[in-house]
Amino acid sequence: MLYLNVVPIFVARGIQNVSTYLIKAGFSPHSAHFILHSKTRSIRLDHIEKLCKLLICEPSDLFAWQPDKDENIPNTHPITRLKKNGVEESINNLIADVPFKQIVEIAAIIKEKKEEALSAKTKKEA
Fold first, then answer.
1. H or E segment at 47?
2. Contacts by 39-48 with C-beta closer than 8 Å and gap 24+?
3. Which end of the chain has fewer surrounding CB within 10 Å, N or C?
4. Structure confidence at residue 53 (pLDDT)
């Protein structure tokens, strides 16, 4: 079954009060609740777009897939790429016990990747 899986993205972004965040971003309290608790059976395309813009992600990042018990889909099927394995952690939890010198190295790598992405975006727009 395909389902909305946005909590790990909020955790990774360090957003703690997700419901308030979504409401301030323009979602109704009802929609925010259903998005947050993956209880929606359908989602509007404009909500997907708004979430992607807010969370700086792609639509496929918002969804996860778990096969039904009696379902037998080969691992080569494209939908299997949406299987989520493991628990995503916030960056703060991931680096909590990493030595400071390595945190500086990680920060440099992140900065470099951001600059590469910005450069690629600028070239694409030109």
1. helix 45-55
2. 40/4, 43/4
3. C
4. 95
